[in-house]
Amino acid sequence: MKRWIGPLALVLCVMTQSVLWFGRGGVVAVMHRERHIHALSRANAALLKTDERLTAVVRSLRRGRGAIEAQARSGLGMIKKGETFYEIVPGSPPSTQTARVFRNQQLAARG
Questions:
Q1: In DSSP terms, which residues pair with 101 in a beta bridge?
Q2: Model confidence pTM above 0.85
């Protein structure tokens, strides 16, 4: 009987350790979940930055006409009446660089 106590204790110890390391709530599973949580936290931080940026844009658009005008100018290329728009054509040397000038009426005719 005493012969079996040593091997039986070893088998029980191995079974307990295997559950501890490789079981459902074991060390390997916990490490995997921690990596997953870390990746989700990074993604969440990036989304929070985007959300803050969009919230600032919405606030500025709600505040006044100037923000709406700035958004239309940058996003749609709109100009005011009587204003002159200069477009620098890239690709030519700076000394001979040409500029296209559009008056408000010309842009309206363009479309």
A1: 86
A2: no
